[in-house]
Amino acid sequence: MDWVQITILIISGAILLSLLIALIKGIYLSKRRFICSECNQEFYPKWYQVMFELHHFEYFRIRCPHCGKKKFHRCIDE
Ligand SMILES: [Zn+2]
Fold this sequence. Notes:
Number of helices: 2
Mean pLDDT: 93
Shape: elongated
Largest sheet: 5 strands, antiparallel
Number of strands: 5
Number of domains: 1
Distance between the termini: 48 Å
Helix content: 25-40%
Low-confidence stretches: none
Bound molecules: zinc ion
Strand order of the largest sheet: 2-1-5-4-3
């Protein structure tokens, strides 16, 4: 193997690993209850909604299924 193949292997490995971590994070978070900061209704997000979303402590930037607002909503399951 030359260095080009090794570099491609490392990069694709890193991409696959980060996708796997994002998927695990998404599945884990989809089991958690969130409360909407806009309409105060509780909801469970879809795993693909939370996979790549930003978060700040227990606040996650996702779309509320009730009012459709994409804001920082709080996770109320700990
Ligand atoms: Zn809402």
